[in-house]
Amino acid sequence: MRGLLIALTFLTRLPLPAPRNVSAAEFKHSQHYYPLVGLILGGFLWLAGRLTGPYYPPLVVGAILLALELALTGGIHLDGFMDSMDGLLSARTPERKLEIMKDSRVGAHASISLAALLLLKFSLLASLKPADMGILLLMPMISRWAFLIGVIGFPYARKEGLGQGFHEASRWLVFAAEGLIILGFAVWFLGPAGLAAILAASALAGLFSWRVSGHLGGLTGDIYGATIELAEVFALLAAFPFLH
């Protein structure tokens, strides 16, 4: 439970007591609780969707769901997405792109990419019917599992950094076991829609990580965040045709 609390206080803005004296090893190994954190976040989104869906116009429901997710996470993964887009979309050398990604200033590529991502996610959320809200329970969990494909399967681009510890502490066996549990739950809960969501998120995470790693020589913490954001959208896109 301590590992879960470490993950919750890092990934969310939930009013929880921060664990004391967290060691580097504890923090690194808390990554395997990220899918469970996603399930908790999904529970909040699902509840909000069920409560607002029958009573408010779809556009209002979509805005509420998007705002709630941002409030719950503090935009931690969006920050990584924006930094990643600033670097990856610049016409620079791989070394310079890594430097741009570390720069806290927001560039045009980040702003444009953020607008496109939020517009797409909002349109998908606003298009969900009350009976479709179950995908909200799965989406955050699947994305926070799928990003581990990059953590485990590809090197870290820098000699030091937050993500370097994640890469060193990652374990294929734990990842595979979590994946089987999530797959079974997704198919049991949503059938073909759940299967499509997890397949799409996994494919996106694998291909995106492979492409970026091949170009930059590895991944970064910002890329991990970008993977989570993109995996959420791809999970929604893939599940949508199978929802009722």
Q: What is this structure, in a nutshell?
A:
The protein is mainly α. It is 75% helix and 0% strand.
Structural commentary:
Belongs to the CobS family. Its EC number is 2.7.8.26. The mean pLDDT is 91. This protein has one domain. The radius of gyration is 17 Å and the shape is globular. The chain contains 13 helices and no strands. With 244 residues, the protein is an all-alpha fold. The termini are far apart.
Tags for this model:
single chain, mainly alpha, 75% helix, 0% strand
Total E-strand runs: 0
Helix coverage percent of residues? over 70%
| Radius of gyration over all CA atoms, rounded | 17 Å
Report the average pLDDT across residues: 91
What is the fold's blueprint, element by element?
Elements: H1 2-11, H2 24-29, H3 34-52, H4 58-73, H5 76-88, H6 94-102, H7 108-126, H8 134-146, H9 148-153, H10 162-169, H11 172-190, H12 192-216, H13 221-239
Helix pairs in contact: 3-4, 3-8, 4-7, 5-6, 5-7, 5-13, 7-13, 8-11, 8-12, 8-13, 11-12, 12-13
